[in-house]
Write a structure and sequence with these properties.
This protein is mostly helical. The protein is built from four helices and two strands. β1, α4 and β2 form a beta-alpha-beta unit. α3 packs parallel to α4. It is rod-shaped, with a radius of gyration of 37 Å.
Length: 154
Amino acid sequence: MMLDRLRFLLVGPPLPTQQMAHRRLNKIRALAAFSPDALSSIAYANQEIYLGLVVGGAAGLALAFPIGIAITALLILVALSIIGPLLDFLDETDRQHNDGQQAVIILPEFVPARGWHNLLHNQTAWLLKTALLYRRRRLGFQRVIIDIPYHLRR
């Protein structure tokens, strides 16, 4: 009942059946009246899609730095998980065969074409070389560390 009153106020009274034929739109007029809405929706759809992508990209950009830090930390943890057991093995071998001879360690190492390429490659050999040099001085073992460079091209 309340809905009928509201519809009567907004739309007005229903048309008598005799007037319906005169008030009805033919197909040409109906197409002219209602198709601009669909055409404008098609015309502005790309703009709205781009706007949605820009807003989503800006939100994702705010997360780029924390995600980059997390990935870097994960790579460092992986590198350290490889280096730790290897260093322990070398120290145990040096303790077992402490006969004054030098241990030779050969490390393949990536040499990037540009300086900023270091960010793209896991520098495990550099970390291993640094750890070996530090441990050699701390524990007093004689080790020779040989780098074999592998030059990356553009």
